[in-house]
Structure formats: C-alpha cells, structure tokens
UniProtKB/TrEMBL annotation:
Residues 317-417 form the UDP-glucose/GDP-mannose dehydrogenase C-terminal domain. Belongs to the UDP-glucose/GDP-mannose dehydrogenase family. This is UDP-N-acetyl-D-mannosamine dehydrogenase. SMART domains: UDPG_MGDP_dh_C. GO terms for molecular function: NAD binding; oxidoreductase activity, acting on the CH-CH group of donors, NAD or NADP as acceptor; UDP-N-acetyl-D-mannosamine dehydrogenase activity. It comes from the Bacteria. InterPro entries: 6-PGluconate_DH-like_C_sf, NAD(P)-bd_dom_sf, UDP-Glc/GDP-Man, UDP-Glc/GDP-Man_DH_C, UDP-Glc/GDP-Man_DH_C_sf, UDP-Glc/GDP-Man_DH_dimer, UDP-Glc/GDP-Man_DH_N, UDP_ManNAc/GlcNAc_DH. Its EC number is 1.1.1.336. Pfam families: UDPG_MGDP_dh, UDPG_MGDP_dh_C, UDPG_MGDP_dh_N. Transmembrane segments: none annotated. GO terms for biological process: polysaccharide biosynthetic process. It comes from Arthrobacter oryzae. The keyword NAD applies. Keywords: NAD, Oxidoreductase.
C-alpha cells in the first residue's frame, strides 16, 4: 500500500484546480491532482494542460517533470485538500452541489485528523458549514472544533477570483478572502496560501467568504442590468443610449456601464441566483437584475425581426457568439440565445454566423441545423442586416464599403457610440442605419 502523504491534494483539475495544483507544486510542495476524468489525469501526467490557458503549460510540465505534481483518479492522504469541482446552476436556480458532495465522499475516508479541507468552488451561503456537517456524518470520529479525544479537521472556504486568460498571473497577485468554520482553520489556510499568493490575504468566517464571491459578481450583474434597461428604455423613447451614457458619465460620481445583448458566462450569469435562492424574499434587486439581463437577448431579437419585417427571406450576418469580447467561451452566451430565437421566429431568414475565436458551431445551434461559421467578409457581403453582438477586436473597424446599404443593429455600440465617431465616420456616409 502506498503510504505517501501529500502536502496538498487538489480535487478537480479544471480551470481553477489545475493552476492551483501546479502553482503549489512549482513552489516545491508535493501535490496530488485528482480528477474523475481519466483523460484529464493522463494529460496532466504527460505534463499537458487539457484546455487553453496562457502560461499554464510551462508550469504544469515543469511541476510534473520535477515529480512535484502527480495526477490520479482517487484521493490520497494529504495535509490539505483543496476542492475545486463545478457548482453549476441546478433546476430552480439553486446550486447543484452533487459534485461537491461526491468530492467530500472521496476525501472523508482518508482524513486522519489535523487536515485542512478547503472549498474553492463558488458556493451558496452555508455550503462550507454543510460540507463540514457532511464530513462529520461520514466520519463521526472526527470533529470540526477542538474537542478532547477527537481528531479535528479544519474546514474553510477560499473563493477563487481569477480571470480566464490571466489565471497564472491573478492566482499569484489577487487578494484572497479566506473564511473558516473556526479562526484556527482560517489561519492555517492563510499560512498555506501564502506559499503561492502575493496579494493580501483577508480572513473572515466561511459564510461571509461565500457571500463575498457572490456579491462581486452580483455587483457587476446589477450594474450591467441598469445599462441594459436604459438601452431598452432609450429604444422606446427614440434616444441614442450611447450619447446619453456619455453625457451622464460627465457627472463626477456617475459611471454607467455599456449595454450589450445580455450577460453570459458561467459566473456573472449564474452566481447571483445563489443569493436569490438563499433569500428569495429579500433579494429582489438581485433577481430583477438577472431578469433584465436575461430579457435583453429577446429585446435584440424583437429589434431584428422588426427591422426585417418588409424583407422576408433576408440574410443576417450575426457577428460574435462568445459571451464577451476576445474569448472563445460560449457558455451561457446571450448570442446563442439570440440565434436560437431568430431561427424560431423567422425560419425563412438566412443566418450567417461569424466568430473568429470560436472554432465549432455551438452545440445548441448545431442541433438547430447551423452547419458552419462564416468568415467576416463573406458574411458581410452576403447579408441584408448586420447584427453585432460581441465587440471582438476583429469587428472594431469594418470596411465601410462592406456595410453600405445594410441595416445595422449594433448592440455593443462599437460603431455607433459617440467616442467612436471619428473612427466610424465613414459608416455614416454609406447610409448604414444604426441602432443601439
Ligand atoms: N473558471 C473560472 O474562471 C472560475 C473562476 C472563479 C471560480 N470558479 C469556480 O471554481 C469551480 C471550478 O470551476 P472550473 O472552471 O475549474 O470547472 P471545470 O469544469 O473547468 O473543472 C472541474 C473539474 O472537476 C472535475 N470533477 C468533477 N467532479 C469531481 C469529483 N467528484 N472528483 C474529482 N474531480 C471532479 C471535472 O472532471 C473537471 O475536470 C466552480 O465552482 C466555479 O464556479 C471558476
């Protein structure tokens, strides 16, 4: 039997778990990376990163070749366990904690007492307490507090705030919040994270740490919802929302964000629901913001359908499928919702989808019969209406001649907002009709 006790075992080797494991291993810790997917474990043991993330490849391959990072499918004994498994939205807008509970079942048998169990997954308030209670249910011989005659485990929450594309930098430089079920647990976790973290480490209780992460994303969601609501109000009132926002932002204490076609991704579009689910009777603004942002793609569809009323069988160039600029991630993307809805409402229209960062037609759209993506110039040339959904760099300065005579719906304001007037003056002269 293998008696190795690792310094750290990281459960879940995805966008968060793998860089965490590699960062500790790069600092000389003996790290076990655990994942249920054999293919992920095999890739990591070859020193490979099974997804795209800048700068991670060299750290992972270095840690593996030094022997500091080993991947496996079962949880070994370790001094600290870091759980970084998915916590997606469940039916009814709560969190699906099945992955977390499954990870807990894998950790419980190897606990000897004295270990840290750190939850990094984004979690609804109370989840860390629930994790602690579940571990005790599985291991009644242990304790979460210092009790005579019982071995103690220290359960803490430390949410991750890194931005995909900058994970290896932000994992080191970001400030980190740590919330413990006990103060001692939080202090022990602080000592551990100091190995990889150069940012400030702030200690609190577990539920406040859970809420901190949710509040950060909810703050963004609420502010974007205000901008999106304004854009819909302005359409109704016949006001240029971009000009309006620019004027309002001249106030020294006002900073209205830019509207868009909705909110996507697996964080901002998801995490506020965890607050709503926890306290539905009080989280009215949070819920409304979610509803406003979820309604925006349907508003964009209504605008598009209205613009095409007189032209049955028209072609639409749809620019951008990712959930935000300059990434390839289409999870929860409002663009996908817009295209799905257009296919349903105007089945005779021809949709020419363009996204320079996305390689394959997203599965929900492939299921509806979209067979391929188009190069930008081909889609513009073949379209009557141009629907801009994402402000990818490649879309910022189109050839004005390619847009001549076409109807334009610019949901990101990159061709129509006042600050871009100089750059896009040509567009006005080719007779494009723009709306926000
Ligand atoms: N990706 C981000 O940008 C980001 C940022 C902040 C927080 N988070 C949060 O971090 C958590 C993890 O997100 P992610 O993006 O790394 O997810 P991911 O899907 O990239 O990776 C999760 C990994 O966990 C593995 N897994 C699932 N169940 C398991 C189990 N029982 N035992 C072992 N492995 C298991 C999966 O196979 C997968 O490889 C989520 O709660 C997410 O909300 C993510």
């Amino acid at each position: 039997m293998d008696e190795t006790v690792f310094d750290v075992a990281v459960i879940g080797l995805g966008y968060i778990g793998l860089p965490t494991a590699a960062s500790f291993a790069a600092k000389g810790k003996k790290v076990a990376g655990v994942d249920v997917k054999q293919a992920t474990v095999d890739a990591v043991n070859r020193g490979e990163v099974p997804f795209v993330e800048p700068d991670m490849g060299v750290v992972v391959s270095g840690a593996v070749s030094l022997g500091n990072l080993v991947a496996m499918t079962t949880v070994p004994a370790a001094d600290a366990f870091i759980i970084a498994v998915p916590t997606p939205l469940a039916e009814g807008n709560g969190a699906d904690l099945s992955y977390l509970l499954s990870a807990a079942r894998a950790v419980a048998p190897v606990l000897r007492g004295g270990e840290l169990v750190i939850l990094e997954s984004t979690s609804p308030p109370g989840t860390t307490q629930r994790l602690g209670a579940y571990l005790l249910e599985l291991r009644p011989d242990l304790s979460l507090d210092a009790l005579p005659g019982r071995n103690q485990v220290h359960v803490v929450h430390s949410p991750e705030r890194v931005l995909p594309g900058r994970i290896m930098i932000e994992m080191v430089t970001n400030d980190r919040v740590i919330g413990g079920l006990t103060e001692e647990g939080a202090l022990l976790a602080k000592r551990l994270y100091e190995v990889i973290c150069q940012g400030e480490i702030l200690l609190t209780d577990a539920t406040t740490a859970e809420m901190t992460k949710l509040v950060e994303n909810t703050f963004r969601d609420v502010n974007i919802a205000f901008a999106n609501e304004l854009s819909m109000i302005c359409d109704k009132l016949g006001i240029d929302v971009w000009k309006l926002i620019e004027l309002a932002n001249h106030h020294p204490r006002v900073n209205v964000l830019r509207p868009g076609p909705g909110v996507g991704g697996h964080c901002i579009a998801v995490d506020p629901w965890f607050i709503v689910d926890a306290v539905p009777e009080l989280a009215t603004l949070t819920r409304t913001a979610r509803e406003v942002n979820d309604a925006k793609p349907h508003h964009v569809v209504a605008q598009t359908v209205a613009a095409l009323e007189a032209r049955p069988g028209a072609s639409i160039a749809v620019l951008g499928l990712a959930f935000k600029a300059n990434i390839d991630d289409v999870r929860e993307s409002p663009s996908v919702t817009v295209v799905e809805e257009l296919l349903r409402q105007i089945p005779d229209a021809r949709l020419l989808l363009v996204d320079p960062n996305v390689e394959e037609v997203p599965a929900p759209l492939a299921a509806l019969g979209i067979s391929r993506l188009h190069p930008l110039d081909e889609a513009l040339a073949g379209s009557d209406l141009v629907l801009l959904l994402v402000d990818h760099d490649e879309f910022l300065s189109p050839d004005p001649r390619a847009l001549a005579g076409k109807t334009i719906i610019d949901t990101r304001g990159i061709w129509t907002q006042p600050k871009q007037e100089e750059a896009t003056r040509g567009l006005a002269t080719v007779g494009a009709t723009a709306s926000a």
